[in-house]
Amino acid sequence: MTEIIVCSLFIIALIVFGKTVSSSFLFGALLYLIWTGQPMGSVASTAFYALERSTLLAIPLFMLAGGLMEAAGIAEQLINFCAALLRKLKGSLGATIPLASMFFGAITGSGTATVSALSTIMLPRLTKMGWDKRYTAALLAAAAPLGYMIPPNMNAILFSVVADVSVSALFLATVIPGILWGAGYIIMNGLVYKKWHNPEIEHQTLVEEAKERAQKLGNDVSAESLVDNESYLQGVWRTFKSALPALIMPLIIFGGIYSGLFSPAEAGAVSGIYALLVGIIIYKRIKLKNGIQVFTKNGFSLGGFMFIIPMVHVFSRYLVLAGVPQAIARGIGTVTDNRIIIILLIDLVLIIAGFFLDAGVLILIVTPMLIPTAQMIGLSMTQLAVMMFVCVGIGTVTPPMAMNLFITSKASGVSIASMIKPLIPMLVFVCIPILLFVTFVPAASLWLPQAVMGIKL
Known about the structure:
Blueprint: H1 2-16, H2 21-36, H3 41-50, H4 58-71, H5 74-85, H6 92-108, H7 111-128, H8 133-143, H9 146-149, H10 154-163, H11 167-173, H12 175-196, H13 199-217, H14 232-258, H15 264-282, H16 288-321, H17 324-335, H18 339-356, H19 359-376, H20 381-395, H21 403-412, H22 416-440, H23 443-453
Helix pairs in contact: 1-2, 2-16, 3-16, 4-15, 4-16, 5-6, 5-14, 6-7, 6-8, 6-12, 7-8, 7-21, 8-21, 8-22, 10-19, 11-23, 12-22, 14-15, 16-19, 17-19, 18-19, 18-20, 19-20, 20-22
């Protein structure tokens, strides 16, 4: 056990000092083998078989589909549709962010892709309308996990590989928590937006835009007649028609999966082909040049990610062989046998791990370590997965490994420290309650997959 602890600290130190995640875990595994005197012949075979899972094919295919839909300009169409839907709400433009994140997540399955795409559009738009950049950036970062809570879910694919759980069940398990999480942000925005929004700037901007449109239409058209001239239903219908090709994509994916027409991996291929056709034929924004760029960009991203998986898997295998997961379960069992306290300890471990580990690494390493503990208290693997996904989301907005904060900070020019103040209410009054909800209300995660698939989880 001492060897494993020292090697784990060695890996953390390498990452802190700037080494890549994959090389850090590889060196940690090699140090463990040298220390314990075990043969190294198993390293290559373990790394190879870590990728020999057909389920993993879904990751590059869904990544490519999301990249193609982003290149097609679908993010802008979805944002316009969400803005039209929420126009009657107080602080409607801010509320557009979580709703757009949910819709965009149903296409990309990635929180990182969601926050990257929406930041480039929403930050300039809201700033122009009088919204404080600090608040906008914080809300974009906080809402990014909705990009994978609304399936398809890249994290679910990884979890299914590690824990041998149905991907289809995991996709459905995050739907209700994801919708509630998004609704929580919308409610919170309605309560605090006045502090971060200047309505006079928004009205002035709308009048100026209306004047420009009036000049294009002719001198006989007044600017006042163009401000909010479109009815609510007209706006919803107009933007719905523009976003319809994108909204159909999730229906094709999940209709095919749950009807048995194709597997999740095959659904990724279908979504990629559909995204390419939509971008070329309907939106006409994907040309040869940017199409090649999408494939190249996703190839580089995937290459790095798929190299991490086998290296992390090698080290996690030695964790399991050393009996670390069972030791953790026994240790927790000696401290308390209270199921509620044990579940809260699991949440605490996941949140702390999320402070320091990337989502993929956390799932690959921590999941095998928690499985014996979850089994000891009768916690469903599907519910454990949803708890982990929520904790991963919280980890992406809590330093030091706050990837979503890094992205929005770079896009907005606002420091991470400046985003903390508007971010704290979202964490305290939305994120933590959602985590407690999925932790102590199993039906939130289990009811939908059981109802749709007719299986007991």
